[in-house]
Q: What sequence folds into this?
């Protein structure tokens, strides 16, 4: 969804103008002079922090209400991964007592730390919020950990705090999706939206249309149900998205006679059988994702050129008594909403229509609309037209392979503000809501689009914390320095929870991450030597270099690995044959650096970059070691040894697709290629 503009305008982040700041109304938040409250999002009420509970020598016993017994394995997993502590259930005299308190509302909880610990919550999810806050508070000490003695009363201001994961452009393995769920849970993000179909892939295991799931890149029914349950136990709800009638190439390839020919570029919404088939798919998805009160129908970026030309379309327009083909698209939205509503769910969709529809077809105002790019309709106009909206602003809360904004930029933003990186979008000039319209914004969502599995975790992990603070307490006082310290603490613990091992890498070029650009921490110039050490005893470490999730019988990591070319490394920590933790990364051989001079925007991206220029663009190459040959093409094709040599510096005067590749003496690619979209502008 929503990535056409990303493909057409692959600008770098340096295109972004300086972030406009807005002072939002604030409610005074609790002070913590000692910096001992290391919780993200920051709780709303914290009593005086006046003592320390030492955990040394104390058994981690828990007393759980019957309704929470199914979450005991989560507590046990957390305590072992983070502190190598065993959690034992007891009926009385527990170190930690969990209690359902009907006097609390929403997902509110009260965490009290004295000589013992009590967690009261409005429901099971609220109790998990309290448990997560407790884990974030534990400070390691020589004696085995300590906690600040205090009382925390906390609750979310917004129910809809979301993250979107695109699993239909680049397939994501089940362990990787679980890690995104873990990130959501850690930062009290309630909803994880899965984008289940697009032109590239259809990943949902439909039984009504067995030829539809993309071969080799789809989930089994058991895997989908496993993800739903994994999320439920952690207080996260998976929201399914069936994005139609655009973004449906995978459907039309599989069943062109039912959904329309591939060249139609959209579903054949003039065909009643197509409409019924879509309801069948939506019904199947709702059955699997039963925990979600919402269903997302997509409905964005529908290109109707071919559809409008067909006689069958004109016939359908007349049969319905509509004015034009666009009414058939609007009717699709209405019909799918009616079906979703009949199943007891609420409909979500992307901002994708103007006004309130058309003269003949009105879009119901009980559909919740994600305002994202402002090109179809400004968010303030959506409000005026009677719609309740959620903020999914392109800037700064979209993450793509080539465009992403920093943790600080997201933190200094607010949920009543829309921005865009394109000067043709209304939100190029930021749109800021005043107090009178703020109550119509009922949620916020970070959207991660088009990224590979290896890109997702390092991109999502630092951007969810600031979003969580906005969703949990939009009116909260913002102190970035204090937030950054809390986030440093929570990130360290979360990384231990996700992957309790350390991969040591000798031979890196930079050795540290760059927040705006993907994967620089994994660049090397010649040979990379890897060793691994698990922080947990008894782990069986397995790995693959073929892009597959490692299985218990895959290669055992028991000696240093020597990597000599770009490699996708996936590592699994196993115990008793069960996958405990997982990590996936691309180790990129980059024997040269590239610099662009004369660019209107310098992409500063050694991967898939882009740059605009007015007169000419100078591209210079600097080898980081001896390189046998550097070749290039100007038409987007992969260079070969027969391609022209790239000189140390070359000047380009026209638009084109520049692809640079190093080769070794045997004529094989030496490291990753460098690709740039260069565009001459007026």
A:
């Amino acid at each position: 969804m929503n990535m056409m503009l990303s493909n057409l305008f692959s600008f770098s982040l340096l295109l972004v103008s300086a972030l406009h700041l807005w002072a939002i109304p604030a409610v005074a938040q609790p002070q913590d002079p000692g910096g001992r409250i290391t919780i993200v999002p920051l709780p709303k009420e914290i009593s005086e922090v006046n003592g320390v509970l030492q955990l040394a020598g104390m058994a981690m016993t828990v007393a759980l209400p019957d309704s929470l017994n199914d979450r005991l394995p989560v507590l046990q997993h957390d305590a072992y991964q983070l502190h190598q502590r065993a959690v034992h259930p007891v009926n009385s005299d527990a170190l930690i007592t969990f209690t359902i308190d009907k006097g609390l509302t929403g997902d509110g909880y009260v965490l009290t730390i004295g000589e013992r610990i009590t967690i009261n919550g409005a429901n099971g999810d609220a109790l998990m919020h309290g448990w997560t806050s407790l884990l974030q508070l534990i400070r390691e000490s020589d004696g085995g950990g300590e906690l600040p003695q205090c009382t925390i009363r906390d609750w979310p201001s917004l129910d809809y705090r979301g993250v979107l994961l695109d699993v239909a452009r680049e397939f994501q393995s089940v362990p990787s999706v679980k890690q995104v769920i873990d990130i959501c849970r850690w930062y009290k993000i309630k909803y994880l939206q899965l984008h289940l179909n697009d032109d590239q892939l259809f990943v949902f295991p439909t039984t009504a249309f067995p030829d539809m799931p993309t071969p080799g890149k789809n989930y089994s029914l058991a895997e989908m149900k496993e993800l739903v349950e994994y999320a439920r136990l952690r207080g996260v709800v998976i929201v399914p998205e069936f994005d139609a009638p655009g973004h449906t190439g995978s459907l039309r390839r599989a069943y062109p006679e039912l959904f329309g020919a591939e060249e139609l570029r959209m579903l054949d919404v003039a065909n009643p059988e197509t409409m019924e088939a879509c309801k069948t798919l939506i019904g199947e998805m709702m059955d699997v994702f039963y925990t979600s009160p919402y269903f997302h129908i997509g409905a964005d970026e529908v290109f109707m050129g071919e559809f409008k030309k067909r006689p069958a379309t004109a016939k359908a327009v007349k049969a319905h008594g509509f004015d034009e083909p666009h009414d058939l698209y609007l009717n699709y939205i209405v019909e799918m909403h009616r079906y979703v509503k009949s199943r007891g769910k609420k409909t979500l969709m992307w901002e994708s229509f103007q006004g309130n529809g058309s003269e003949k077809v009105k879009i119901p105002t009980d559909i919740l609309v994600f305002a994202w790019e402002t090109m179809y309709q400004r968010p303030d106009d959506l409000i005026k037209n009677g719609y309740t909206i959620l903020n999914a602003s392109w800037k700064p809360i979209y993450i793509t392979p080539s465009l992403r904004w920093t943790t600080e930029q997201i933190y200094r933003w607010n949920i009543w503000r829309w921005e865009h990186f394109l000067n043709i979008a209304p939100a190029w000039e930021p749109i800021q809501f005043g107090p009178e319209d703020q109550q119509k914004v009922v949620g916020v969502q970070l959207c991660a689009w088009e990224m590979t599995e290896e890109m997702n975790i390092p991109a999502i992990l630092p951007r969810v914390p600031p979003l969580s603070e906005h969703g949990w307490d939009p009116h909260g006082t913002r102190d970035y320095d204090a937030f950054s310290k809390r986030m440093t603490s929570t990130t360290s613990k979360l990384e231990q929870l996700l992957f309790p091992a350390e991969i040591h890498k000798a031979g890196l070029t930079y050795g540290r991450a760059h927040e705006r650009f993907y994967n620089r921490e994994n660049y090397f110039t010649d040979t990379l030597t890897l060793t691994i050490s698990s922080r947990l005893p008894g782990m069986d470490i397995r790995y693959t270099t073929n892009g597959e999730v490692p299985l218990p019988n895959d290669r055992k990591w028991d000696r240093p690995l020597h990597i000599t070319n770009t490699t996708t490394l996936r590592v699994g920590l196993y115990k008793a044959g069960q996958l405990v933790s997982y990590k996936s990364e691309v180790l990129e051989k980059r024997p040269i650096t590239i610099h662009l001079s004369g660019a209107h925007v310098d992409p500063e991206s050694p991967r898939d970059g882009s740059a605009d220029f007015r007169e000419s663009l100078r591209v210079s190459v600097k080898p980081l070691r001896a390189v046998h040959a550097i070749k290039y093409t100007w038409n987007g094709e992969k260079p070969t040894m027969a391609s022209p040599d790239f000189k140390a510096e070359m000047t380009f005067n026209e638009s084109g697709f520049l692809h640079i590749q190093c080769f070794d003496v045997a004529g094989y690619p030496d490291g990753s290629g460098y690709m740039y979209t260069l565009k001459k502008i007026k």
About this structure: The chain has 18 helices and 33 strands. Residues 2-28, 602-608 have pLDDT under 50 and may be disordered.
